[in-house]
Amino acid sequence: MAAGPSATIGRSVIVRVPATSANLGPGFDTLGLALSLYDELHVTATDDADVIVEVHGIGEGEVPTDESNLVVRAIASAFAFYGQPLPGLRLVANNVIPHGRGLGSSGAAIVSGIMAAKGLLAGIVDIDAEALLALATAMEGHPDNVAPALFGGLTIAWVTPEGPQHKKLMVHRGVSPLVFVPEHTMSTSLARSLQPESVPHADAIFNVSRSALLVAALIQSPELLLAATEDKLHQNYRASAMPETNRLVTMLREHGHAAVVSGAGPSILVLSDDPSARLAAADLVAEHAETPWSPLMLAVDFKGATVVPHSVQSPLSS
Ligand code: HSE
């Protein structure tokens, strides 16, 4: 129970959260993969009422630095859920995950805040994995980015009347992600507005088969990735809003690369079954792209978000 000033005052934590790619082709709002690109956040609980936010890197000079900051709102929501008084907060964010590109930056910000709350409240409130996912999903709206951001690896996420659930799977070591990031952004809400209310039964069956196959391809049989990343539920409906993404995904797939739209786009995720195949994919994009695209050769992150006390540096959670 909360009573008087926050017992967290004076505590300080460091949070690290990976980028994520959701959908992975057929697994709309369900499958997600954690990637080796990390936002880092330092949070200190102070004895005044102030919220001070410093943003370095991506979003510097753009994202709000007051109580409306997404990380601050996530911290506040976790404290409120557990009935804990919110201390003053000093945040320093070092961001590298691109914003508005389909790499889970908003999910990472939310997970950063929830994990910071977990660290600050350690020994006062135990926020377990299920609660972390529930808190993060309540803010994000769907669990497919926040689940891999929290837990790492490949995650299957689903929603029940009791709340969001997840299963984490380890990815075959041959699976090699490559992400292409354009200079332009895409709004997730715009992308979602392009989805129809209902889809043909045959398309639903198509995606059920590919999603099941994709889990097998990612954990056991990477040679099936091209067939397993086919989709009829979202990418075609959204193509008009990101024509170059659509054109490059089609071109890469015609050349045998398992390319998909990353999350709601506009970035492209290629899931290679051989690290060297990524160079060929990068050459193809360099040859066919009409605007600049940055290739990021990444690994799968297997750990997910971490929080450590600032001074001690021993893990509180992972
Ligand atoms: N599954 C989500 C979508 C991911 O594609 O809309 C982006 O938040």
Question: SSE layout and pairings?
Answer:
Blueprint: E1 12-23, E2 27-46, E3 51-57, H1 70-81, E4 88-95, H2 105-120, H3 129-140, H4 146-151, E5 154-160, E6 163-169, E7 176-182, H5 188-193, H6 201-219, H7 225-228, H8 235-238, H9 243-254, E8 259-261, E9 268-272, H10 277-288, E10 293-297, E11 306-309
Helix pairs in contact: 1-2, 2-3
The protein binds L-homoserine.
Outline:
The protein is of the alpha+beta class. The chain is built from ten helices and eleven strands. It folds into two domains: 5-169 and 301-317, 2-Layer Sandwich (Ribosomal Protein S5, domain 2), CATH 3.30.230; 176-297, 2-Layer Sandwich (Alpha-Beta Plaits).
3D architecture notes:
ATP binds at residues 98-108. It is found in: Cytoplasm. Helix content is 32%, strand content 27%. It has 318 residues and is α+β, with helices and mostly antiparallel strands. Strands 1, 2, 3, 4, 5, 6 and 11 form a seven-stranded mixed sheet that branches. A four-stranded antiparallel sheet has the order 8-9-7-10. β8 and β9 form a beta hairpin. The longest helix has 19 residues, at 201-219.
